[in-house]
Amino acid sequence: MIVEHLSLVDFRNYATAELALHSGPNVLVGRNGQGKTNLAEAVVFLATLGSHRVSSDAPMVRDGQEYAIIRARLSHGERKVLVEVQLNRQGSNKARINGSPSKANELPRYAHVVLFAPEDLQIVRGDPSARRRFADQLLIQRTPRMASVLADYDRVLKQRNALLKSARARGIRGEGLSTLDVWDDKLVALGSEIITARQRLAADLQQPVADAYAAIAGEDHRPQLEWALSVRGGDPEEDGADPTDADDTAPYDKVGETRLIADMFRASLAAKRSNELDRGLTLTGPHRDDLVLRVRDLPVKGYASHGESWSVALALRLASAELLRSESPAGDPVLILDDVFAELDADRRQRLASLTAAYEQVVVTAAVEEDIPEVLHAHVVRISAGTISDERSLRQAEGPSAEEAGEDD
């Protein structure tokens, strides 16, 4: 897949913006705070229905405006698709595909993007929510219908939490909580599907992550991925996930796992109901799980060096790209490397560049042009205070230089 053209209206610092992109590497250069990452964020939103920087859509709408528009022309071989989303400061977003109204959760069927960013270090070093977000955004790209499942789960979770808080305030217990059973049924059905999909994802990522880690780090540190599940009785969100406790983790095994997870989910809800009523909070489910990452048989968080942590983060993104590449009939996902080279040492820069250069389209943003390895240094666009200047277009308008025209000095 290739993004041929990106148009923005009232998105972040752009009142309007037009960006032409080409196959192969594209370099967006500009000082920090000029709007490079905003362009990357817009493309990523089309693929994941979310931002890698904020958890809600409102901050992406320009100050003083009620909505923003992201529009992109995508190329899938000979097929062209025009996708558009209106991000509303309040209310649901609206989408169009080839000019026809569509649900926003249909967009990931057409836009396939993998983002590398400095924030990726938080996937391996941050709290469990960062790892859940990484997994869920990849789930949406892999299986777009999961966007609806995740949204429905969040809606049910909010309703259930509201009921728990109300019951706590009113002192309701026992049979007075019959309504809670209805929400439990919905929570279990949706949550079990999410847990099973996440486990399958971790299993499918295992070998690609190991291969990518070895390519990035130049060493085999046996990286591993495994979900710690709150439905098994612990609470990875608060207590942390103990990677040495086999009873607290559950690698994906078989299709029937969903039914087993549902049974554990119901048992966990029953066991924790008293505590949930005391706190007015749902204490078990996929919203409290954690993706345990290990290298050298030790948890990355708390044990891995800075270089190892970066290698794991990069390996997760490269493995994601390889997984989407192998499964999608639309071709390669677009790779976006957003200010990531400034964070890496020279060796990892060269390794990452060589591993990504062969993708159909790569978009690189950087504050310092020299940070970008030569293999990715092609079509250059300069960004300054929200103004986009395409060097190729400028050279075409000015005519060839003396050297390009073959003139003597």
Automatic annotation (TrEMBL):
Gene3D superfamilies xref list:
P-loop containing nucleotide triphosphate hydrolases, RecF/RecN/SMC, N-terminal domain
Compartments in which it is found: Cytoplasm
Q: Specify the RecF/RecN/SMC N-terminal domain's residue ranges.
A: 3-372
One Pfam match, given by its short name, reads SMC_N
InterPro entries noted in UniProt: DNA-binding_RecF, DNA-binding_RecF_CS, P-loop_NTPase, RecF/RecN/SMC_N, RecF_2
Mark out the compositionally biased spans (Acidic residues).
236-250
For this UniProt record, give its keywords in alphabetical order, as a comma-separated list: ATP-binding, Cytoplasm, DNA damage, DNA repair, DNA replication, DNA-binding, Nucleotide-binding, SOS response
Primary location recorded for the protein, binned into one broad class: cytoplasm
* Annotated ATP binding sites: G30, R31, N32, G33, Q34, G35, K36, T37
| Segments of this protein annotated with the region Disordered | 232-253
Role summary: The RecF protein is involved in DNA metabolism; it is required for DNA replication and normal SOS inducibility. RecF binds preferentially to single-stranded, linear DNA. It also seems to bind ATP.
Q: Quote the PANTHER family the UniProt record gives.
A: DNA REPLICATION AND REPAIR PROTEIN RECF
Q: Which family does it belong to?
A: Belongs to the RecF family.
Q: What is this protein called?
A: DNA replication and repair protein RecF
Source species, please?
Microbacterium luteolum
The gene is: recF
